[in-house]
Amino acid sequence: MLGVELSEKRWIPVACALAWLAGSWVQCIASAPLPTGNQSSILVASISIFVVFLKGRKSGKLPFLLLSSFLLASARFSPPPKQSWSKPPDEGRPVQFCGQVLDSHRSDQGGFEGEIIPIPSKGGFPFRAHFPSISFSSRNNPPQGPRRFHGVLKKSSWGWQLNHLFADPSFQHHRGAFHFLTRTRNALRARLEENLPTPEAGLARALLLGEFKAVHPQRYALFRGLGLLHLLAVSGMHFWLWDSILRRLLCGRLRFLRPLLLLFAGGLAGFRAPVIRALSALFLRDWHHHSGKQVNAFHLWAGALWVECALLSPREQGLGFVLSYSATASLIWVNRTRGGNKTWRIFRSSLAASLATSPCLLARQGTLEPWSVALTPPMSLLLPPRMLGSAMACLPGSPGEMVGVFLEGLSKFENLILELIDQLPATPLVAPKISLSAWALFSLSSVVAMGLRNPKLRHITICFALLGFSGSLLYPKKGEPGFALLSVGHGLSAVTAGHQKSFLFDFGSMSISPNLLLRNKLWPHLRKNSWPVPREWALSHRDYDHSGAMKVFQKKHQSQQIFSTPGTFTEIEGMTPFQARLWNCPMRIEGEANAGGCVLELIGPSGRVLVIGDQFGRDLRWLCTVLEPGPIEVLVLPHHGRTTAGLPELLNHLRPREAWASCSEREADLAATPLLRKRNIPLRLTSEENLKWPPVENSFF
Known about the structure:
The protein is 47% helix and 16% strand. By secondary structure, the chain is α/β, with parallel strands linked by helices.
């Protein structure tokens, strides 16, 4: 039956949209860029499209259309090549461009920070392809309206940053609708901050203005751990709710205001990808209804996909494109069948959306979010009153204090439930060793089975789902033993994995919060290498940049700390094929936190690795007396490469083939660099990427 429907001409755009989503989906879950993401795939797709326009049987052209859609999507969403800089990354480069301030607010350091969107001008649009928006920091509040901006552009761990911002007051530009929207956004932001408490104002800014960074970090971490981030961000769900509310409020002659107000709400939210996605579906639906035509939900889904791909670049769409369209397609598919009571249908939809997006999240984050299935439906009930309360706080003459009390009450109730659930296991479920292909087979087969009407086909699909589920549990993916130094800025986080278990040495950073360090650095790296979650750990010393995230790690994972007596070493068992030793330097200086502490030595089949914390001077000279002479493979430099006391003696004794430094982009010019150059020792920095030994080639899955 499905093949007959797809052979009809009106289903071809839907089939091509599914193939397009499949190409982007496969490219998303691949651990390395696929060979389809290059010029050859575009050539094959072009040939396929050419074949479609040749005369012949129509039924034989659909496979070529599907193939071309798959290959073009795979090429479109392939990772961009790394950009080369004419200067070291920490220095940045001077730039000037025309732009519009989208968001400006006071920072914790006393200056101003926000976001700028580049705009076209007679001088060109230099950042259109690569920089949809740029964060900035400035001592003074930049003027509103279009301006020519000057500054130093640099890449940071969270995106692109423009420092030393200067706005040219002599630049003139047409003040159009964009300027009006910006002034309105700033006015609404100020009103929300005036009428609501700070946490509620931040959440209201996220729901109304799309300013996701305004959400309180603790609430963000709580929602992310439970898989509920889609409730905090402006998305299709929010605009469908606005549409339902406006349909009930604007009746009769006022109906024409509904699309205008939806467009206005989209402009306030910045017309980002989720907004374009939702408005496309809503307006396509209204257009069909106005024409007196019945429209299938899959046609709306496909139409919104093609509109978004035509208007936005892959960078602007991001991972949200794959997650959103996968979840929506699964919702449409499973609701084809109307069996069961209403409660089951609601939770079935939540389960289908969670399963459809789980392979992408597993590939990118190394986690599964089972609590999202049970919590999304009840937590969604709090969304309409929160959105209405946030909108009321923006109105002139509104009872801001009463609205603030109401929203605070909602948040207390919400936090009470979520904090209790956060104490339970699997919030989220960290699964670095689950086979991605087996889990994808299970999740997609389960979604297909929930929407099939034919009992025989449903039973066959359920068998495939059970096969994938059993394969993901019984045949975990085996990772190669190794050592990795994570890119954490100014800090240190080293992971060692053997055949049976892994070990964590230090876990902290001065530039990345503990929750983000755990979720964005450690878990994805464990997933990428198929390493188990560490159950043992040790600290070189207790400075924040070495231990700040360890409490968060202990909260999520049961683990124990390994200690060593000063002047000796402790053997860490079970790290085959490595022999892992935790040395404790005996030197102690009162008032000096960096004196003494632990050092990790790894002895493997292909060489040795030594990881040093912030030790210096006599500690390094003591290590020369107890460690076997070199050569060794890798030396992680002491104190992030910023100290030289005792380092020449250690380099002469160990003769490392490579030196690594865990440092930020601002620390690229290290004090240890001249000593390394003198001895022809290459230096690698974690400010550029995660470092791993021994190096291995990436696989696709």
